[in-house]
Write a structure and sequence with these properties.
Oligomer: single chain
Shape: globular
Number of domains: 1
Radius of gyration: 19 Å
Structural class: mainly alpha
Helix content: over 70%
């Protein structure tokens, strides 16, 4: 157990350090070499930091997956249950944003939709703009779910599951929330998704369904769930 915790702290520390350095270096490069303004450089620097830090976790998770592949649980979830989980993943962003507005009065924030990004990249070449937009979507809708589920619901899960299901869900979920440094409320907003993918992992014995659920949730969130909810205000 102690070895697992120290390994987790090591990899998460390296993840955060890599992200900070990548954001700093790429931000300076984009401003001084490419001449981007502070907003555009900062936005793209965050993307570079995400790619670099996810590469760290991917290497760790991929090596572990090859050595210790996940074993699907017999008699896991049926088609109806999987459909219910997918529906839940679709509705979660709407529910979370709605509750934040209702309980805390926080204004709904649209995800990085073309409209939101276009305001930051005025004057960009159309091809460059759409290339960056697709890259943003690819990182947070495809790469992030695959890497995060592989690391937290496979690499870490496999090392904790002998200690009991609830401890495994708690520690893997806490570590997952830790890397999303969005403040207490932002991390709390991710709790429903954490529980959803943990349930899928426990029932199927594999992180694959969780990757799909995570990706669907991110797609809805980044496609602008907040913008849709504004229509009902």
């Amino acid at each position: 157990m102690a070895t697992t915790i120290w390994s987790l702290l090591l990899w998460l520390g390296l993840f955060l350090v890599t992200q900070v350095f990548a954001i700093g270096l790429s931000g300076e490069f984009l401003k001084t070499i490419l001449g981007l303004d502070a907003v555009a450089a900062g936005t793209n620097a965050i993307l570079c930091g995400a790619i670099a830090s996810y590469a760290v976790l991917f290497v760790v998770a991929r090596r572990d997956a090859i050595l210790f592949p996940a074993v699907p649980r017999k008699g896991g979830l049926g088609v109806a249950a999987k459909g219910l989980l997918i529906t839940t993943a679709i509705l979660l962003p709407f529910a979370v944003l709605g509750l934040r507005k209702l309980l805390f009065g926080i204004d709904l924030q649209p995800g990085p939709s073309p409209i939101a990004l276009a305001k930051q990249f005025q004057g960009f070449d159309v091809f460059v703009f759409w290339s960056l937009f697709i890259l943003w979507q690819g990182v947070f809708i495809i790469i992030a779910p695959i890497v995060e589920e592989s690391f937290f619901r496979q690499w870490l899960w496999r090392r904790l599951e002998e200690r009991g299901l609830w401890l495994t869900i708690g520690l893997s979920g806490a570590a997952f929330l830790l890397i999303h440094l969005r403040g207490a409320l932002g991390m709390l907003s991710l709790l429903p998704l954490t529980l959803l993918v943990s349930f899928a992992r426990a029932k199927t014995g594999s992180p694959k369904l969780g990757m799909w659920l995570h990706g669907i949730n991110n797609f809805i969130a980044f496609a602008g769930a907040g913008m849709v909810l504004r229509l009902f205000q």
